[in-house]
Amino acid sequence: MHHLNNELKKLGCLKLRTEEKEKLELEAQITSLSLPGEQAIDKILRYETAIERKLYRAMDQLERLQRQRKGEPVPPLEVSSET
User: Fold this and answer.
1) Could you report the per-residue pLDDT of 30-53, keeping only the tens digit for each?
2) Closest CA to 82 of 40, 41, 60, 54
3) Could you tell me if residue 1 is inside a domain?
4) In this structure, is residue 83 part of a structural domain?
5) Minimal CA–CA distance to 61: which of 80, 72, 77?
6) Contact assessment for residue 52 and residue 60, using Cβ atoms and an 8 Å cutoff
7) How far apart are CA 13 and CA 51, in angstroms?
8) Is residue 53 part of a domain?
9) Residue 31: which H helix or E strand, with range?
10) 71 torsion bin: left (phi>0), alpha (psi -120 to 50), beta (else)
11) Contact 36, 44 (CB under 8 A)
């Protein structure tokens, strides 16, 4: 009888571990499905890059205007082939 009780305890522990593992796997699967696809991520990264370029251009323009207003020499614009 003692042996059966020990086996039941072991099985109960294994059942709890298995249920927890299945729960974690399901949560991981749900989380992975909520992420955007590869094409969407590529598009987001392209947009982010374009926005960063525009931000840096605006900051450069602001700095040039501030220097010009103060009467400081204004460095020539950097021209790049990227748009």
Assistant:
1) 998 888 889 999 999 999 999 999
2) 54
3) yes
4) no
5) 77
6) no
7) 54
8) yes
9) helix 2-34
10) left
11) yes
